[in-house]
């Protein structure tokens, strides 16, 4: 009786093993999966120069689309200028506000639905309309200046410089600068 049970168990195990081996052979015969819209590579952003502004720290957020995070704990307000030189974000130690009339805000993919633009073109000469985004002195966003390599055809590894201009309460301008490096998947 024990010999019969052992023979049955071994036969089942052998048949299972053969089924597994043949299934992988059948799958391999069909070739690799074909995928559409696979990116050619990725963009890595880095900061190469930070302004000497008391209480300011900056950090790149690594992701398929790079972002930036600023933390500000200074005494006077600090304004981030947008892609057209307009007032975009305003940082204080107690909060962050956005100018909803800014074209940079209109182009932002990470804006909350409650603050979304009505679809009309923004006017950079219009008076800023400030809306609070954060009750802390930090905020992160997907800035279009960190995504300029994403939609370009790349021959080989490509590098480009970027900058984000900041304006202090005294009107003095400074910049956070860095590089974007496109690296093709190997």
UniProtKB/TrEMBL annotation:
Residues making up the signal peptide according to the UniProt record = 1-29
Q: Which domain of life is it from?
A: Bacteria
Keywords assigned by UniProt, alphabetized: Signal
The segment annotated Disordered runs over: 101-128
Q: Where is the composition biased (Polar residues)?
A: 119-128
The protein's name is Uncharacterized protein
Organism whose genome encodes this protein: Halopseudomonas salina
